[in-house]
Amino acid sequence: MSYGDAMNARVRSEERRAEIVRAALEVIAERGYRGASLGAVAERVGLTQQGLLHYFPTKDALLVAVLQERDQWDAVPNTRWRMDLLASLVEYNAMRPGIIQTFSALLGESVTEGHPARAYFTDRYVQVRANMAEMLRAEYGDHLPNGLTPERTAPLLVAVMDGLQYQWLLDPESVDMPGAFRDFLTLLGENREDAG
Amino acid sequence: MSYGDAMNARVRSEERRAEIVRAALEVIAERGYRGASLGAVAERVGLTQQGLLHYFPTKDALLVAVLQERDQWDAVPNTRWRMDLLASLVEYNAMRPGIIQTFSALLGESVTEGHPARAYFTDRYVQVRANMAEMLRAEYGDHLPNGLTPERTAPLLVAVMDGLQYQWLLDPESVDMPGAFRDFLTLLGENREDAG
DNA sequence: ATTATCTATAGATCTATAGATAATGC
DNA sequence: ATTATCTATAGATCTATAGATAATGC
Q1: Is the terminal CB of chain A with fewer CB neighbours within 10 Å at N or C?
Q2: Residue with CA nearest D14 C1'?
Q3: How far apart are alpha carbons A38 and A34 in whole angstroms?
Q4: pTM for the complete prediction?
């Protein structure tokens, strides 16, 4: 029993941390990172602000956990993207406004001076562009039908995904995010010789 | 003289306000809107925080002035966009990281709940998409070479501009924003029959 | 008179530290 | 013993109000 109890204790603690991170994701979606208070996060999991600091000793430590959660989020597909999965991902995202809002808010904040998530996003985009280029190369070879290289196309692909998210978050009624993204993929796949 | 003096007074007051707005743009670029303190803005124009409140009675009032400044910023070209001017605009933006950072940070924050700039951005994007669609129609008619309508292309065009800005702000060395944007315009202009 | 600024200050927050108390697990 | 939480609190901010004082312009 003792071994199992010890393990249960660890598991329970991990669950508590996960619960806190989930609450933090929500609060950041609502108020951004700078606007998110530890008190608001704590309240959501039924703790005092000081009780929360037992699990994450500083606000920044909590942010780190939030960003690791994000890495988890697309860890599985990120191993090796495929174009058809990408469209599905955008469709899936359209059903998860909360998480998209969290990371869109964080991305926006991250361009400000000394923001604690800045290095994370800078590194992340280097990786994501590389992944996307690799995916495009697997799909099309060294040149897309339109003549661009995968490396030059990758930033555009990433930009469209992010940019559409902002438009969609601000006005979901007016913006068909998955539809627009599929349009873009069609654009990429189109070939000068397709017509004849 | 009296009439002229009165006018000078008004002009001087207007100049002071403009100076404050410029300082606010800077501080927002550095810290976001929520993170920007009136004290920091005031200091930059050599006023106390309370002195600043003489010109803008609340923090939100100052934000309104900042957003109006933005409308000014692209008022001239916005009247009627042209595709070639659009590429130039992106090139121009690449020389103005400050202003781009200000509005990228604001856009990011604006998706959070109850943000005072949210309605502004929602409305703005409705307009910008309409302007872009109009421009695309003027350039290509009711269908682009790739078959998409101007209305379906407009959100993509806007998304690419915004998305590239984030990637570029985070990592200007790695991202050639104007070049990538020109690539995208090429993509739009390409015709299935071009090859033959 | 009006405009521009300042000092003083109320009232809200917010993060983080210190240290007590209760519960859990060897 | 260690882990989980709590109360108390220091120390920083921040916005906005009240009201004084100096300068400007009729």
Answers
A1: N
A2: B37
A3: 10
A4: 0.93
